[in-house]
Amino acid sequence: MQKGRSGRGGGRPGRQGHRDRPDDGFEQRIVELSRVTRVMAGGKRMRFRALVVLGNRQGQVGVGLAKGTDVSLAVSKATAKARRALINVPLKNETIPHVITVKYKSANVLLKPAPKGTGIIAGGPVRAVLELAGVPNVVSKILGSSNKVNNVRAVLKAFNLLKLRA
């Protein structure tokens, strides 16, 4: 039997699948990935910033924003933050319970319930959050700022303000 990296279980023992987390039903989507710089005495220091949305398509969603020295580090840190910040989304008849307009900083997001078969009518970052939250039918409109981070946070704020009537 051959030792080392043969592609058939070689390498360090006990490390199989350490990169893949157990399949817990959560799906992640990178909404924004940007290169940011800090000017230091010796020049510019580059880092990467990742905005990640994590959801199970069954009413749970979280958002993480993190920086790292390389892309994979930034994404993994953002995913870990999103996992710690999961919220539950109240659903009623496969849509949100009522119309809501939320302002987060300069971003305004309007979410409206929609009848079955409508699908998700939303743009960009708002669509990613709604899809991963598992809202099948909803109409939304981004008003004001087009900043992805603030629009995603506005949708999460809207989810926290949604109320199911008893």
From TrEMBL:
Q: Where is the composition biased (Basic and acidic residues)?
A: 17-26
**Keywords noted in UniProt:** Ribonucleoprotein, Ribosomal protein, RNA-binding, rRNA-binding
Q: Which domain of life is it from?
A: Bacteria
What does the entry give for GO biological process?
translation
Instruction: Note down the stretches annotated as region Disordered.
Output: 1-26
This protein's GO cellular component annotations are: cytoplasm; small ribosomal subunit
- Member of which family? Belongs to the universal ribosomal protein uS5 family.
Report what the protein is called.
Small ribosomal subunit protein uS5
